[in-house]
């Protein structure tokens, strides 16, 4: 009998309860194997035959082979980073652990839903983990049923290759990013970090797909107008919207080509993209106005702090003589996502073709009717900067236009697409 | 996060028998259509065909809204004051836009009726109705493509669909629909889209206007050339073309004038005014 089979029989004996002779198990197992059944399946079949507990069928993988939706994963990896965090699960506070685990093929993020006593730098054998997906890559989950044991094996970590992103696809919380973009603006500032003065460079960069705010903590000798390739950057959230950060761990290379940013500036993106990113700089979307919210129409602002006031009382400056202003707060929805859009006086006057003074001559009900008649159910193109909070994404509209849909043309396009499909 | 208002045809929405119920108060529920639309909120534009107060006492308006593929049921009561007020004075037929929440009624296990509880209703014009049809076709088409991809996967994967560029909402809906309904008759939805695209109003109206103008001009041409024996067909068409009309349009106009009895054909190939 080969040694391998001996180990298999040991495993079967362990899973099978009661009086079963080793000989019976072996002859049964051999029968399956003689019929050409693979050893692993033969083992399960014998266990089942003797009424044993079905052993969990684990899938041995290298981390680079892990795909989201994988179940019952088994692998060996090195804890690259670990971070404790408190979360609320169904009203109860629970400690979870987040980190990175790596082998020679990949480094993946993981979440441990209980305390396995993991420490940075340890090599562990993990059995029965599962994978989900986050930010376009697999994320491992270690649950109640996952087994984790320390081992002495050596793991050489892969040198992670940065992943290339188009700017439109960036969202907060990504790392090891590679982008190619044009530095549209750049400001130099000095900040004090733990007592020492450091120079930071901030501004907006863009590629053909979109624009993003950036902060560089290192002087890479790059200037406004340069087209650069950045490797090893990461993103953080700035008022919900993504911000690209790069420091001495990143490489920045000036490249000799131009990106014609102006060509893309008015092209609208699907709203779900903006919602997923949590916001953006100079974005354009097109959708239907499906709601006009209260606080639209004539409002009064505090002359000192510019806040919207109600009944002549500013929440900060008390009783003031309010200055009239005009705005619309609306929900724009394209069927893939929805954003709140705030139109200022200028864009409101442009859309309604009425001035603030004309609106002041109407009563509140008339103003509301006017705005609803004009905007509700009507397609609109809006541009501006978008931010997000717990209530969703808000676009501060810089420019807006009513859209006259080219229905005939769109119909033709769709019909020809359908023909291709058949 | 605010739920987007999906564009879904009645023909697809009404076939739904699967609901994804949210756990707890804050998680929303969704109607999952056979083609994988994950519907919490909808935006539709259609023809309001009838309105009725179905409450024994008080107010509960039931309305039907027709699109090229089917009919939506809409219910608005005292907690939807604006839509209820709209329905109480709405005229039928009229083009109406509705934003509303997906609602289900399950009288017994396995039987599910879907309807809409409106948040906003407004009368619109034919152009916005056509625009909605095109939008609904585009969204249905995208789901159809995603469904086709998913049906070729083993097993269908949300992640893989997202990698192919589909939004989370579509990827999740399609995978959920496949597990709830099994394979989907794609051709049925292809047919649905084509039916819808044939239902354009603005195109028709513009064409009728164009045809009307052409008829007037063509009638003038016939009068000018008819003489004693009538005007030659080819001569009329040529003159029409010289005046900047498409050949097809001139012929359509002539046929229409003959239908109306304004022009007749005393001898084959010659035309006279009556």
CATH level 1 class label of the largest domain in chain A = Mainly Beta
Number of helices of chain A: 8
What proportion strand of chain A? 35-45%
Helix content of chain A: 10-25%
Give me some keywords for this one.
heterodimer, A: 422 residues, alpha+beta, OB fold (Dihydrolipoamide Acetyltransferase, E2P), five-stranded mixed β-barrel, five-stranded mixed beta barrel, 8 helices, elongated, B: 274 residues, six-stranded mixed sheet, 12 strands, 27% strand
Describe this protein's structure.
The complex is a heterodimer of chains A (422) and B (274). The radius of gyration of chain A is 30 Å and the shape is elongated. Chain A has 8 helices and 24 strands. In chain A, helix 2 (22-34) crosses helix 3. Chain A folds into 4 domains: 3-49; 59-150, Beta Barrel (OB fold (Dihydrolipoamide Acetyltransferase, E2P)), CATH 2.40.50.140; 163-264, OB fold (Dihydrolipoamide Acetyltransferase, E2P) (Beta Barrel), CATH 2.40.50; 271-402, OB fold (Dihydrolipoamide Acetyltransferase, E2P), CATH 2.40.50. Chain A has helices at 3-15, 22-34, 39-49, 271-277, 345-352, 356-360, 364-375, 407-421, and strands at 59-60, 73-89, 92-102, 107-112, 123-134, 137-142, 147-150, 163-164, 177-183, 187-193, 196-206, 211-216, 227-238, 241-246, 251-254, 280-292, 297-301, 308-309, 313-314, 318-319, 323-333, 338-343, 379-389, 392-402. Chain A has 422 residues and is an alpha+beta fold. Chain B is an alpha+beta fold and 274 residues long. Helices cover 43% and strands 27% of the residues of chain B. In chain B, strands 1, 5, 6, 7, 8 and 9 form a 6-stranded mixed sheet that branches. A 3-stranded antiparallel sheet of chain B has the order 2-3-4, with helices on one face. Chain B has a 3-stranded antiparallel sheet with strand order 10-12-11. Chain B is elongated. The mean pLDDT of chain B is 90. Chain A binds chain B through residues 67-69, 90, 133, 136, 270-272, 275-276, 288, 290-291, 331, 333-338, 372, 376-379, 391-392, 404-405, 407-408, 410-411, 414-415, 417-418, 421-422, and chain B through 1-7, 24, 43, 45, 97, 99, 119-120, 122, 124, 127-128, 130-131, 133-135, 137-139, 141, 145, 155, 157-159, 162-163, 167-169, 190, 193-194, 197, 200, 202-203.
């Amino acid at each position: 009998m080969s040694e391998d089979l001996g180990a298999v029989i040991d495993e079967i004996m362990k899973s099978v309860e009661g009086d079963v002779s080793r000989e019976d198990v072996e002859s049964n197992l051999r029968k399956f194997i003689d019929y050409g059944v693979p050893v692993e399946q033969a083992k399960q079949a014998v266990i089942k035959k003797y009424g044993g507990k079905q052993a969990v069928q684990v899938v041995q993988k290298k981390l680079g082979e892990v795909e989201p939706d994988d179940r019952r994963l088994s692998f060996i990896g090195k804890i690259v980073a670990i971070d404790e965090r408190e979360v609320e699960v169904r009203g109860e506070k629970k400690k979870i652990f987040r980190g990175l685990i790596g082998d020679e093929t990949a480094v993946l993020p993981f979440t441990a839903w209980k305390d396995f006593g993991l420490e940075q730098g340890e090599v562990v054998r993990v059995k029965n983990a599962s994978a989900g997906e986050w930010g376009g890559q697999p994320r491992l989950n270690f649950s109640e049923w996952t087994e984790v044991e320390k081992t002495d094996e050596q793991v050489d970590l892969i040198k992670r290759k940065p992943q290339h992103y188009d700017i439109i696809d960036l969202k907060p919380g990504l790392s090891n990013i590679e982008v190619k973009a044009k530095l549209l603006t750049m400001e130099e500032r000095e900040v004090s970090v733990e007592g020492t003065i450091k120079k930071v460079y901030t501004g907006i960069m863009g590629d053909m797909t979109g624009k993003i705010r950036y902060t560089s903590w290192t002087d890479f000798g790059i200037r406004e107008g340069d087209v650069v390739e950045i490797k090893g950057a990461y993103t953080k959230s700035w008022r919900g919207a993504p911000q690209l950060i790069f420091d001495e761990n990143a490489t920045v290379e000036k490249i000799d080509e131009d990106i014609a940013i102006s060509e893309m500036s008015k092209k609208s993106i699907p709203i779900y993209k903006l919602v997923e990113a949590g916001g953006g700089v100079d974005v354009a979307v097109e959708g239907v106005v499906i709601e006009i919210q209260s606080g639209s129409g004539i409002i009064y602002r505090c002359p000192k702090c510019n806040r919207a006031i109600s009944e002549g009382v500013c929440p900060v400056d008390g009783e003031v003589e309010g200055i009239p202003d005009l705005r619309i707060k609306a929900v724009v929805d394209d069927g893939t996502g929805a954003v709140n859009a705030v139109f200022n006086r200028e864009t409101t006057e442009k859309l309604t073709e009425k001035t603030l003074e004309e609106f002041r001559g109407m009563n509140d009900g008339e103003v509301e009717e006017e705005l609803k008649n004009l905007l509700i159910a009507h397609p609109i193109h809006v541009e501006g900067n978008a931010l997000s909070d717990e209530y969703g994404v808000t676009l501060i509209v810089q420019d807006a236009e009513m859209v006259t849909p080219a229905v005939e043309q769109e119909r033709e396009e769709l019909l020809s697409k359908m023909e291709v499909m058949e | 996060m605010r739920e987007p208002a999906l564009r879904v045809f009645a023909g697809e929405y009404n076939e739904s028998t699967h609901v994804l119920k949210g756990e707890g108060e804050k998680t929303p529920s969704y109607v999952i259509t056979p083609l994988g639309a994950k519907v919490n909120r909808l935006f539709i534009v259609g023809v309001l065909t009838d309105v009725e107060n179905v409450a024994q006492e008080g107010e509960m308006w039931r309305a039907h809204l027709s699109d090229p593929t089917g009919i939506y049921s809409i219910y608005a009561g005292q907690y939807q004051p604006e839509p209820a007020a709209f329905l109480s004075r709405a005229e039928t037929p009229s083009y109406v836009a509705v934003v509303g929440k997906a609602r289900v009624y399950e009288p017994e296990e396995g039987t599910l009726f879907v309807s809409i509880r409106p948040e906003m209703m407004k009368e619109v014009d034919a152009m916005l109705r056509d625009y909605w049809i095109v939008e609904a076709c585009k969204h249905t088409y995208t789901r159809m493509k995603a469904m086709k991809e998913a049906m070729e996967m083993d097993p269908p994967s949300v992640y893989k669909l997202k990698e192919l560029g589909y939004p989370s909402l579509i990827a999740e809906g399609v995978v959920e629909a496949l597990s709830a309904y099994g394979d989907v008759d794609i051709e049925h939805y292809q047919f649905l889209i084509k039916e819808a695209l044939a239902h354009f109003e603005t195109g028709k109206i513009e064409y009728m206007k164009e045809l009307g103008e052409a008829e007037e001009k063509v009638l003038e041409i016939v009068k000018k050339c008819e003489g004693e024996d009538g005007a030659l067909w080819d001569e009329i068409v040529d003159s029409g073309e010289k005046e900047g009309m498409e050949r097809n349009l001139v012929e359509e106009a002539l046929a229409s004038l003959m239908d109306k009895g304004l022009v007749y054909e005393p001898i084959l190939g010659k035309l006279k005014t009556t």
